[in-house]
């Protein structure tokens, strides 16, 4: 390969000498630099006709490009601030979401507010492993604190969801731009660059950003108006600016640059880019401008009195001072740039003269040299050519240093030379690559490269080139080099041409061999062909194998049915030679074995058997002696059989003898092991083990009987004990069936045929023959005992007769004695029985006295059991006679009713108890109907007032926003007046309400609807049926809630669902609403909850609906009664400070000491939790705080637990349904886990917010002028934190380890909370609570009505139609039928209703 300076190619110096004359005319060659062209997004050619869609598409593309430019500007500015590289522009938004980059930016300009240790997941390891975590929002909050610290107006602040959920990322980038401009004005950060029109992006990036902006659905903020907004928000104190400018003019006259610098850097002067190093220049320039201005003003107004002249006529204004500062900075920067240019060119010449390649490259790449097309790979060429140029210039006389233009021209020439050299090197690299990764064709193509001067490249030799060059390359790799050079390739091509010629001669030689074999020539002719010099077989050919060669070659040709290759011929020759050689060696080895057989030296025989040429298998050294005995016997047998004295064994016979000896050895080992096991079992005394060992097939023992196992063991043990011998090292002698002695060590399990040296003369180890003798003897004795056992009945009978005779004789003798002394015997028995009875009585009495408590308890259990038994018998009796019981009860009730009716009729003033029983029989009067109508009217009025209040609240919120925007000059006063007029107009229009029911025709006539057509009447009835189905069947609304987007669920809940249920004003509506909540909750648990804690970590729609309903119902008063007194007590405790953070307590302690002593403490102010806890004072204060916390928490918990019955029924009912639904879906889940979820609903979602923010929930009454202080909120937050942790069954660990002392209290509090949660989630069913069943609507005096607006009817109808298929799936098709009637009449009906009533109506329901 040609390399620079190694002589492999033209050197830079030689090339330069030939082209030196063209230096002056050389042009700049870009060295791989890319030319960037700014995209003209949104520009429309005047000659191009575009439709509206295309113009809108161009506008969106321009907006996407503009936003990408702002992203790139923010990225470069943040990188300059934090001095670190950020992800690409398109990935910047995702990288900002965890807040780490923003916190690092905040640390840059406000390190005292945001130290690095406060950044969560600073190395982003958790973010890269598991993604976003909710604690990443802490980073965003810390960043907002830094913005507040530096004073950025809050109009620029984004909210958490803008960043964390990517709901408005342009707002975040807008804030970063505002921060950059604001900090630059304060002199704390560099100015952000304007890249609009200069930054370039691909079409894919612009298209992706356009889609992302469309997904946001928002308009881009006006980045160009940030400066104006900041100017409006940050009003400048003109007096302070004037004073600062006057101070600058005064200090200029002192000609003290340091004082001038201080005046210029005064923040009140609002000057920017005031640099310390330029202070003397500022002094001179500004002083000259001031004097020139003063002189000019004096010349123009010489006759005017100084008191009547404007001070700024002879003083510099702020703009003039800023302009002077800017001019000085520009001048200094230009001087520095020119100086850097001259120094850079000088460094280049110095590096050339010094021959320093690294310094030359560094100097050439410096921006100060203004050189182009610098390629680091060509630095050696630059050095060679530039050095030659300096030498030539020195020889010509004059200055030998090169100018910038001369250096640029030479660099261009050197690039051309290097490029040519690279082409040659690339061709060489291509050849090396083809050799490593390609094939022969690619190698041939690379060799034929025009840039290489290779001669004699023949295509027919391509395979030789590939193989030969590849081998040469591998050889160089082994020697340390990796690539072939051009010379190596030329040498390899020549060598391969010679190799190809030689291989063709070899091919002809082997073709002659194939012809000789195929044509049937003689063996000698074939031998002559094999001995050809090109065949390369001369040294391996044996003339005595000519016939074998010919036969083997002919056989191979016949099998292959084609000519043999050279390798196959060589293999056949080698095979024939090897076969011949192996036969000779085999015969020699067999002869040596026969010579050893019959001798006494087993070692020589073993060596002969192990000879590999003998071809014997399974020869084992340990059996050498036995091989000698067996083979000797076989040889003698063969001599006797053949009648010859010198008969020899063949190789097969020898192998048979070896196998036979090995088999006998294995059997001998098995026999020895079996005998050893028998001896061991006998020694252990285990008869079962002895029996198993005796029955082993290897032992080959006869007459073994299982019943004699114990006798075998005992007899063998006795036999062993009678043998007096040495145990030795464990060796024992055994005899095979052939009579050969075999020795086995039962300790080490070694075996051999040679007699061991340490074999004892007499061993205590029993041999097989001895064991067989003992076994035979024991078995014979057992057989005799068996014979006796078979005649046992006869023997037993004989023994019984003898014993019976003896017993009768003794009994008769004893009986005669007792009859002779009968009186004495009776008296003795009576005395003995009395003594025993008295003793037993005393023992029983003492036992009962010692166990009095147990006896009483036992008696109570017996009485209780008897009582339960009697109760069960009574209950069973009643069940058996249930018909009679019913008759008795019927008779008694009839008698009671008759008595009450008689009392009602006959008594002038019957009691109320009697009248109450017969109220259902009274007729309905006009008064009853009037009262019912009045009740309905009042309900309608209540609903209208609720809706009116909601609208007023919404109008107030919108008006507040309008006023805020007006104050900030974001909208005009006319917009506010217009909005106010619109609100008043809507209020005047919303006064009337029309009743539309099926039974009030007068109302219809009075409003112009008395003449409804039949079609319109059918439409009206369809809507009445529709809302009745939606109200009474919870499945529809439950399914609708889950099908709708979650962002619209809350609004649908407030505007439609509560309206349909009339805000639950009576029992029926409350019943239907809680049934809806029940169904929706079950649907949520079944479809969306995969783990129990999903209810806690998520934000279920049903839970939000229940919380919203209960807080708006009677839950507000409950929270006020429950928590109000305690919260008020906490708020009124002025000295109460419930601080739980060790760092905050430590700092409060330091502040207290400094305020008391008036001196600064020596303790550090910024410490960690562990360092703060090292101080005993901090520990004491934490302990005191924990005691106060636990005291307050006990009172709060006691109040909560006493309020079970005060909690709204809907909340308790949903808690019960949540508990039952979780138990049904997770039957194996612990009860504690389920109660934690219930507690999350009852405490965390319902009660905890009222403790944390009592002013927001009106738990305590506070005037508009009073607001909760930071200390009060912190105290309530600390109490809520303890209660929340206890309700969740958690402990303080990790970051909250300082509160670990509270864990015991938390455990006890959780046990109390569990009882509370279980009680609160156990209520009567809704049917029982409200007395409602499926027939309640049938017996109603008046039909149910709802008070709903036309807009809500339209919204409900549209949503129902949209989700029609999902709503009716799995249930009855009643709703589908009603919707089909209304489907095509929605527009006409709404037009009719809107014409009649523009606000709301009363809709009766049909069922």
Topology:
Layout lengths: L11 H8 L32 H31 L9 H5 L3 H10 L15 H6 L5 H15 L9 H5 L4 H18 L16 H14 L9 H8 L4 H15 L4 H8 L14 H22 L17 H37 L2 H9 L13 H17 L8 H34 L2 H8 L14 H17 L7 H33 L4 H8 L15 H15 L5 H31 L5 H8 L14 H19 L8 H34 L2 H8 L14 H14 L8 E5 L5 E5 L4 E3 L15 H23 L1 H29 L1 H29 L1 H29 L1 H25 L5 H6 L8 H42 L5 H17 L3 E4 L4 H6 L7 H19 L1 H10 L2 H15 L6 H22 L5 H4 L3 H12 L2 H18 L9 H16 L11 H4 L3 H26 L7 H17 L5 H22 L17 H18 L15 H18 L5 H5 L14 E5 H13 L1 H4 L6 H9 L3 H11 L3 E5 L3
Parallel strand pairs: 4-6
Antiparallel strand pairs: 1-2, 2-3, 5-6
GO molecular function, one term: GTPase activator activity
Keywords: Calmodulin-binding, Phosphoprotein, Repeat
GO cellular component, one term: cell cortex
Which keywords apply here?
3-stranded mixed beta sheet, single chain, disordered N terminus, repeat, 1407 residues, 3-stranded antiparallel beta sheet, mainly alpha
């Amino acid at each position: 390969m040609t390399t620079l300076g190694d002589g492999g190619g033209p050197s830079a110096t030689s090339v330069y000498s030939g082209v030196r004359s063209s230096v002056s005319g050389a042009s700049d060659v870009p060295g791989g630099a890319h030319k960037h062209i700014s995209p003209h997004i949104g520009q429309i050619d005047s000659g191009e006709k575009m439709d509206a869609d295309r113009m809108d598409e161009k506008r969106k593309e321009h907006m996407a490009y503009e936003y990408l430019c702002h992203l790139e500007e923010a990225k470069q500015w943040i990188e300059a601030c934090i001095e670190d590289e950020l992800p690409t522009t398109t990935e910047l938004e995702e990288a900002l979401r965890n807040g780490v980059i923003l916190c690092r930016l905040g640390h840059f300009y406000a390190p005292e507010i945001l130290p690095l240790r406060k950044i969560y997941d600073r190395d982003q390891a958790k973010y890269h492993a598991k993604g976003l975590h909710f604690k990443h929002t802490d980073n965003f909050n810390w960043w907002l604190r830094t913005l507040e610290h530096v004073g950025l107006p809050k109009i620029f602040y984004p909210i958490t969801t803008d960043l964390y959920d990517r709901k408005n990322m342009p707002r975040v980038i807008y804030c970063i731009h505002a921060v950059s401009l604001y900090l630059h004005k304060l002199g704390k950060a560099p100015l952000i660059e304007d890249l609009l029109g200069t930054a370039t992006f691909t079409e894919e990036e612009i298209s992706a950003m356009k889609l992302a902006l469309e997904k946001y659905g928002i308009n881009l903020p006006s980045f160009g108006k940030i400066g104006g907004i900041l100017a409006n928000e940050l009003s400048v104190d003109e007096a302070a600016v004037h004073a600062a400018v006057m101070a600058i003019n005064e200090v200029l006259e002192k000609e003290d640059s340091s004082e001038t610098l201080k005046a210029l850097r005064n923040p009140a002067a609002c000057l920017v880019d005031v640099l310390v190093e330029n202070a003397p220049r500022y002094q001179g320039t500004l002083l000259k401008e001031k004097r020139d201005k003063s002189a000019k003003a004096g010349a123009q107004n010489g006759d005017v009195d100084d008191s009547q002249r404007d001070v700024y006529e002879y003083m510099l204004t702020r703009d003039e001072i800023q302009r002077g500062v800017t001019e000085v900075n520009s001048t200094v920067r230009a001087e520095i740039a020119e100086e850097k240019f001259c120094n850079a060119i000088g460094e280049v010449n110095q590096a050339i003269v010094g021959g320093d390649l690294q310094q030359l490259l560094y100097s050439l790449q410096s921006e100060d040299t203004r050189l182009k097309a610098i390629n680091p790979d060509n630095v050696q060429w630059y050095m060679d050519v530039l050095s030659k140029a300096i030498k030539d210039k020195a020889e010509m006389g004059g200055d030998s240093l090169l100018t910038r233009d001369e250096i640029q021209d030479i660099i261009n020439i050197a690039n051309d030379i290097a490029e040519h050299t690279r082409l040659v090197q690339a061709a060489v690299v291509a050849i090396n690559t083809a050799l490593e990764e390609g094939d022969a064709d690619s190698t041939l193509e690379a060799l034929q490269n025009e840039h290489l001067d290779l001669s004699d490249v023949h295509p027919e030799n391509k395979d030789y080139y590939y193989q030969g060059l590849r081998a040469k390359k591998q050889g160089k790799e082994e020697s340390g080099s990796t690539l072939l050079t051009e010379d190596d390739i030329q040498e390899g091509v020549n060598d391969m041409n010679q190799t190809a010629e030689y291989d063709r001669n070899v091919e002809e030689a082997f073709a002659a061999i194939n012809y000789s074999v195929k044509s049937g020539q003689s063996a000698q002719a074939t031998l002559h062909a094999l001995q050809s010099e090109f065949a390369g077989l001369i040294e391996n050919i044996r003339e005595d194998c000519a016939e074998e060669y010919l036969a083997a070659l002919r056989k191979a040709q016949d099998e292959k049915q084609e000519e043999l290759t050279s390798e196959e011929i060589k293999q056949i020759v080698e095979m024939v030679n090897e076969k011949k050689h192996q036969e000779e060696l085999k015969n020699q080895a067999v002869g040596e074995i026969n010579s050893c057989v019959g001798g006494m030296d087993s070692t020589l025989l073993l060596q002969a058997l192990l000879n590999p040429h003998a071809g014997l298998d399974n020869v084992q050294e340990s059996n050498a002696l036995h091989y000698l005995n067996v083979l000797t016997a076989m040889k003698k047998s063969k001599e006797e059989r053949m009648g010859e004295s010198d008969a020899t064994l063949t190789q097969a016979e020898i192998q048979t003898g070896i196998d036979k000896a090995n088999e006998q050895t294995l059997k001998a080992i098995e026999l020895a092991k079996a005998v050893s096991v028998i001896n061991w079992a006998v020694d252990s005394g285990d008869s079962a083990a002895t029996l198993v060992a005796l029955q082993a097939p290897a032992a080959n023992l006869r007459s073994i009987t299982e019943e004699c196992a114990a006798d075998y063991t005992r007899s063998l043990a006795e036999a062993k004990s009678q043998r007096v011998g040495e145990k030795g090292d464990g060796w024992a002698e055994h005899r095979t069936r052939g009579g050969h002695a075999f020795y086995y060590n039962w300790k080490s399990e070694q075996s051999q045929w040679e007699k061991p040296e340490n074999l004892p003369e007499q061993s205590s180890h029993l041999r097989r023959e001895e064991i067989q003798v003992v076994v035979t003897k024991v078995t014979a004795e057992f057989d005799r005992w068996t014979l006796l056992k078979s005649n046992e009945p006869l023997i037993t009978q004989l023994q019984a007769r003898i014993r019976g005779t003896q017993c009768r004789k003794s009994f008769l003798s004893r009986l005669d004695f007792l009859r002779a002394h009968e009186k004495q015997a009776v008296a003795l028995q009576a005395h003995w029985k009395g003594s025993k009875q008295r003793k037993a009585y005393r023992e029983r009495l003492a036992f009962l006295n010692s166990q009095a408590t147990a006896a009483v308890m036992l008696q109570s259990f017996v009485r209780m059991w008897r009582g339960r038994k009697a109760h069960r018998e009574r209950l069973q009796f009643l069940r058996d006679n249930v018909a009679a019981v019913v008759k008795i009860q019927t008779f008694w009730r009839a008698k009671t009713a008759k008595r009450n009716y008689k009392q009602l009729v006959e008594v002038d003033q019957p009691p109320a108890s009697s009248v109450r029983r017969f109220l259902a029989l009274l007729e309905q009067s006009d008064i009853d109907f009037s009262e019912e109508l009045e009740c309905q009217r009042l309900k309608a009025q209540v609903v209208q007032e609720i809706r009116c209040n909601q609208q007023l609240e919404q109008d107030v919120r919108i008006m507040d926003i309008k006023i805020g925007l007006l104050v900030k000059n974001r909208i005009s006063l006319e917009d506010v007046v217009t909005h106010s007029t619109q609100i008043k107009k809507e209020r005047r229009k919303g006064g009337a309400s029309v009743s539309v029911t099926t039974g009030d025709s007068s109302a219809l006539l009075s409003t112009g609807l008395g003449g409804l057509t039949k079609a319109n009447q059918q439409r009206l009835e369809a809507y009445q049926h529709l809302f009745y189905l939606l109200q009474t069947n919870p499945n529809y609304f439950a399914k609708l809630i889950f099908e709708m987007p979650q962002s619209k669920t809350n609004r649908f809940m407030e505007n439609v669902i509560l309206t349909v249920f009339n805000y639950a004003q009576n029992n029926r509506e409350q019943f239907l609403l809680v049934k809806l909540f029940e169904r929706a909750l079950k649907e949520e648990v079944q479809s969306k909850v995969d783990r129990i804690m999903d209810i806690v970590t998520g934000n279920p729609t049903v839970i939000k609906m229940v919380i919203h309903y209960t807080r708006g119902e009677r839950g507000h008063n409950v929270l006020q009664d429950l928590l109000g007194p305690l919260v008020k007590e906490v708020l009124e405790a002025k000295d109460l400070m419930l601080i739980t953070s060790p760092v905050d307590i430590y700092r409060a302690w330091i502040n207290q000491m400094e305020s008391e002593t008036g001196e600064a403490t020596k303790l550090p102010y910024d410490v960690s939790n562990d360092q703060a806890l090292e101080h005993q004072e901090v520990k004491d204060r934490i302990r005191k705080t924990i005691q106060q916390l636990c005291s307050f928490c006990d009172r709060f918990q006691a109040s909560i637990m006493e309020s079970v019955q005060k909690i709204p029924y809907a909340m308790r009912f949903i808690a019960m349904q949540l508990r039952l639904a979780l138990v049904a879906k997770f039957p194996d889940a612990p009860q504690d886990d389920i109660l934690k979820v219930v507690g999350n609903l009852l405490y965390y979602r319902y009660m905890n917010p009222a403790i944390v923010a009592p002013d927001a929930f009106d738990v305590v009454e506070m005037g508009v002028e009073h607001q909760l202080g930071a200390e009060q909120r912190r105290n309530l937050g600390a109490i809520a934190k303890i209660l929340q942790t206890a309700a969740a069954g958690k402990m303080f660990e990790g970051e909250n380890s300082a509160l670990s002392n509270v864990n015991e209290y938390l455990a006890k509090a959780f046990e109390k909370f569990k009882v509370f949660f279980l009680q609160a989630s156990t209520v009567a069913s809704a049917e029982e609570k409200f007395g409602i069943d499926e027939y309640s609507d049938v017996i109603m005096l008046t039909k149910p009505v709802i008070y709903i607006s036309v807009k809500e009817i339209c919204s409900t109808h549209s949503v129902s139609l949209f989700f029609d298929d999902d709503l009716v799936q799995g249930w009855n098709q009643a709703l589908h039928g009603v919707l089909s009637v209304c489907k095509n009449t929605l527009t006409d009906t709404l037009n009719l209703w809107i014409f009649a009533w523009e606000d709301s109506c009363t809709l009766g329901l049909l069922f």
